[in-house]
């Protein structure tokens, strides 16, 4: 990561100014940005006019001293009203295209393990900012956190299309922050985040060991919280158990409602298998659903994987889905997905089938003969591995998570409307399962 020198020097000046004037520092200094900095003069920006006047009259001498200490030179310091480029920068609206079409409240099976998390998500989506704020959901991987977060977003943008809802994975938050630093546009970054009426951040455990990102996140959190905006977070463990997260962030996370999702009970698992089968248009009998629910216990993503394998086997061989087939799929020589399949296995199968090169998939080319295999890769990687959208995008030319999600939705829809695409996916899945 290449951070511009000026930002480093300014960070140093800011640190010294905070030490010189801790009282004003607490209130004002964290939201200052560099507007202009050339050897002899430093222009510091703040987003509010009254504050600028206050800073100019009260804190100029502190900053002049701090700048001298930090650089060894005499530097003229002034404060100015900062505006994001081109006036107020529009925050990107969350569109439904980015959300997984199946991750709605309707498709979420409620049971004792997730009832509280589900209820609090419903409450928050009906009255954002005024029930539980922040809402913090935690639980092991594959238990439905992302599903619930998407459902809240979906509900919110349907109910209040004018509200600015932002959904970010923690990785994306970090990446956008780093990009803003590199491009010297922290003001724009901050303005965008702070324009949110609802900010949803998935998998905050990834904030660990990223001090600068934690710092920025802390300020975003405060700004939104103070403005009464809804914040929703998810993580793989409770706030207090997130390793190397700053104390002050942990305490913020505990301000609202913290709720846990547990592994689902047998009955809930049966209901989930049935729901997933129904969503895919697969007909399975009760005894098969019970069988899968008995065999696969820890993780709902694996339940779905078992279903995918069964479906793939039946589609590829033109066979009816019987208990026997389910047994072979789950127990037999065919491995359960996720344990062994890597993105490389998927890429190999796809490049072979479509006769394209990996370099093409990773390139910027957008002709259909490359786009289609690329999107199929993304779809299969999403359904057969545990990689995050970011990771999948990373393997396919550094594409961002929205691109991957869009691809998955597109292929999903294509599979539903065109049986040829459906059987191609089943065939590829089977090949990856058996050869992988
Ligand atoms: P997490 O984010 O907790 O790792 P996800 O939200 O990605 O888990 O869920 C993994 C899969 O399991 C998703 O396909 C999701 O739809 C499904 N799932 C999880 N819980 C439920 C539920 N209660 N009802 C229906 N599907 C669920
Ligand atoms: Mg998740």
Plain-language structure description:
Helix content is 56%, strand content 10%. The chain has 436 residues and is an alpha/beta fold. It folds into four domains: 3-87, 2-Layer Sandwich (GMP Synthetase, Chain A, domain 3); 96-260, P-loop containing nucleotide triphosphate hydrolases (Rossmann fold, 3-Layer(aba) Sandwich); 266-334, Orthogonal Bundle (Helicase, Ruva Protein, domain 3), CATH 1.10.8.60; 340-435, Chromosomal Replication Initiator Protein Dnaa, Chain: A, CATH 1.10.1750. A hairpin with a 2-residue loop joins strand 1 (33-38) and strand 2. The protein starts with a helix and ends with a helix. 39% of the residues are buried. Mean pLDDT is 86; it is low at 85-89 and 333-338. Bound molecules: adenosine-5'-diphosphate and magnesium ion (MG).
Walk me through the topology:
Elements: H1 5-20, H2 22-28, E1 33-38, E2 41-46, H3 49-71, E3 76-81, H4 115-126, E4 135-138, H5 145-159, E5 165-169, H6 170-182, H7 186-194, E6 198-202, H8 211-226, E7 230-235, H9 247-253, E8 257-260, H10 266-279, H11 286-295, H12 300-317, H13 323-331, H14 343-354, H15 358-362, H16 368-384, H17 389-395, H18 401-417, H19 419-435
Parallel strand pairs: 2-3, 4-7, 4-8, 5-6, 6-7
Antiparallel strand pairs: 1-2
Helix pairs in contact: 1-2, 1-3, 4-5, 6-7, 10-11, 10-12, 11-13, 12-13, 12-19, 14-16, 14-19, 16-18, 17-18, 18-19
Bound molecules: adenosine-5'-diphosphate (ADP) and magnesium ion.
The site of adenosine-5'-diphosphate (ADP) has 18 residues, from helix 5, helix 10 and helix 12.
């Amino acid at each position: 990561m290449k951070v511009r020198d000026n930002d480093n020097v300014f960070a140093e000046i800011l640190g010294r100014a905070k030490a010189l004037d801790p009282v004003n520092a607490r209130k004002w200094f964290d939201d200052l940005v560099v507007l202009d900095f050339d050897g002899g003069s430093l222009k510091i920006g703040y987003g509010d006019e009254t504050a600028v006047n206050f800073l100019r009259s009260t804190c100029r001498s502190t900053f002049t001293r701090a700048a001298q200490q930090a650089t060894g030179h005499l530097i003229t310091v002034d404060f100015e009203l900062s505006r994001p480029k081109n006036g107020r920068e529009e925050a990107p609206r969350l569109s439904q295209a980015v959300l997984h079409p199946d991750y709605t409240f309707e498709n979420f099976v409620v049971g004792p393990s997730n009832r509280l998390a589900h209820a609090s998500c419903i409450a928050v989506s009906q009255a954002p900012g005024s029930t539980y704020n922040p809402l913090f959901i935690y639980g092991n991987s594959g238990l439905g956190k992302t599903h619930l977060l998407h459902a809240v977003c979906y509900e919110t943008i349907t109910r209040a299309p004018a509200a600015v809802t932002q959904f970010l994975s923690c990785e994306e938050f970090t990446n956008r922050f780093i990009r803003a630093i590199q491009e010297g546009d922290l003001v724009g970054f901050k303005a965008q985040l702070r324009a949110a009426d609802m900010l949803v951040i998935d998998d905050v455990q990834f904030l660990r060991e990223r001090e600068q990102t934690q710092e920025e996140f802390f300020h975003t959190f405060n700004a939104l919280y103070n403005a009464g905006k809804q914040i929703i977070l998810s993580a793989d463990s409770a706030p207090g158990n997130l390793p190397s997260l700053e104390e002050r962030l942990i305490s913020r996370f505990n301000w609202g409602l913290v709720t846990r999702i547990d592994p689902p009970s047998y009955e809930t698992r049966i209901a989930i298998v049935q729901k997933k089968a129904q969503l895919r248009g697969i007909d399975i009998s009760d005894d098969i659903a019970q069988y899968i629910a008995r065999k696969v216990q820890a993780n709902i993503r694996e339940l779905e994987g078992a279903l995918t394998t069964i479906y793939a086997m039946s589609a590829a061989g033109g066979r009816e889905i019987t208990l026997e087939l389910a047994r072979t799929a789950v127990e037999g020589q065919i491995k359960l997905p996720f344990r062994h399949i890597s993105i490389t296995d998927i890429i190999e199968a796809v490049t072979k089938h479509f006769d394209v090169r990996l370099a093409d998939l990773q390139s910027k080319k957008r002709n259909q003969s490359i786009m289609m295999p690329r999107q199929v890769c993304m779809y299969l990687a999403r359904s057969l591995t545990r990689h995050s959208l970011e990771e999948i995008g990373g393997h396919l030319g550094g594409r961002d998570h929205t691109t991957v999600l869009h691809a998955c939705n597109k292929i999903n829809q294509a599979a539903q409307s065109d049986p040829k695409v459906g059987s191609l996916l089943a065939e590829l899945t089977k090949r990856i399962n058996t050869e992988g």
